[in-house]
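2,5-dichloro-2,5-cyclohexadiene-1,4-diol dehydrogenase
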Amino acid sequence: MKLGPDIAAVITGGASGLGLATAKALIAHGVKVALFDKNAEIGPGVAAEIGAVFCEVDVMDQASVDAGFVKARAANGQERLLVNCAGGGFGGPNKTVARSKEDGAITPYPIENFQKTLELNLVGSFRCIVGAAAGMMTLEPTEDGDRGAIVNTASVAGEEGQMGQVAYASAKAGVIGMTLNVARDLASEGIRCNTILPGIFDTPLLARAKPQVKAALSAMVPFPKRLGAAEEYAALAVEMLRNGYFNGEDVRLDGAIRMQPR
């Protein structure tokens, strides 16, 4: 798909990190961008700075997502591109069932945290895919035959979840698992779907980490021995969106890291 001012995009989690880097990359190609993000404190300023439209959206809430699409389309027209970057976890690391080293007490995983993590990462992504794809299907195909293209964000944890990551790993494994199905479901409509599996990236989530923690994480990466840059994610996302033969793929972007049990 040829990127330019006649193309509109929606990016979830777009006010920071991977989503913001992707928004900037698409805007550099002339694409009209709407940022879906629930952070209303920074979102409007970020959007104004880069020339995007901010939509306060919680991807865990259907009405919020629907309203976001209405606002984005009123400003930019029907989107042909969707990049899902909204995600995270709830409750911190927890084993499936843990035993205390101090007193032997047994603590089951908080099921509510498991459900909320799946709702944010997996259901939230699918909710936005459904909304965007339904809109894309109303468009005529481009000269390349594309009605639209979707990029999801999973994680290497979806293939190699570490101890205490069972909810997050399950959610990201679900994102990986739905990619080919979505691509097949939408193939006859000219809508492609791919997923990126980032490794350890230098995002706002790690901004509060101590330098020694970042150094230790960097040392885990075979090459290059550093954290990934958001711009590197954005570059791959842009290629997935514009390359018409890129479809149904889950691609690791991780410096060859393979996560150990802990």
